[in-house]
DUF1996 domain-containing protein
Amino acid sequence: MHQWASLAAAVALLANGAVAQNMLRFACSQLVVDRVDPLVNPGIRYTPHLHQIVGGNSFNLTMTPVEYDLAKRSSCTSCSFTQDKSNYWTAVMFFKAKNGTYQRVPQVGNGGPQGRLENKGGLDVYYIPSGKVTAFKPGFRMLAGNAANTDDNQVSKGNICHRCWTSTNDNNFVGGAPCTGSDTVGIPQDTKCKMIRQTIIFPTCWDGKNLDSPDHKSHVAYGQGSGANGGGNCPSSHPVKLPQVMYELMWNVTNFADKSIWPDSGPAFMYSMNLGGSAAHGDYVFGWEGDSLQKAMDKGCNLNRDCPAAGLTAQTADKYNACTIKQQAPEPVDGWLKAMPMGEMAIKA
């Protein structure tokens, strides 16, 4: 009898685990690579550093919260789900050569246990629920990480991390859960790395009042613990549980494996702030249509598949790859550059 009871308990745990693992996980292709940042530097062209942006094509220099309705203004999205007109962006990784020139590191699709995602540049987005969660409201925005940080010790490895991928096959999964094991805050500087995976995990607790805050962080908080688990218990100051947003990027560094072109000193790989992994950051501006995200969380929609219960429709890669916009701060960002795009317009080497 005890044996059967134990077996029944094990089956129940497995069933609960399967439910807990339901999450949205989908690809977003590059909308544009541009020196603009409507969250931190609204209205400014040629902001201090370069970003790669994905999502709805209404992305603009200035997007006033609530008034600027991304869902209604966007005619397409570079993300898998038609209903997601949000914008997501991160800094760009560069390789610095021995001769002092720079080249933007390209991104590729991401595989793993849940299956391969296809994107043209860009990144992968996760929405991970933990129990009952409250979806973001129109006008909501937030920032994870600090673009000016230079100290790896000031960053929680459980929230922002990098992993050295020793294979060019993104489906040949390396390591355990994101931001665990040998993952590092710093960018791996090793020719053994064929790809470098970057993970950015956002806070999951909200004060329930403010859609934004002056630092784009104070209205949200991390729950207890860290990692890609949907977030732990929330503090009393931020009692509303949100879906856990996570970005994953696969930087393809195979073109830079020749050690002879690496700089004699200092890092070869850095972000567009001319800084390392401690300065990695991600920006988020909510733009899902209606209550589609809330329904997706409530109905247990999973991965990047159609979810009729929530009205979610997944586009084919050719559809979301085709959604692009022109740079609003025009400058060359591909090929070898004389300097990293900071300050003046970039110039080809």
The first strand starts at residue 24 and ends at 28. Residues 1-20 have pLDDT under 50 and may be disordered. The CA atoms of residues 109 and 296 lie 24 Å apart. Helices lie at 2-20, 70-73, 292-298, 317-321.
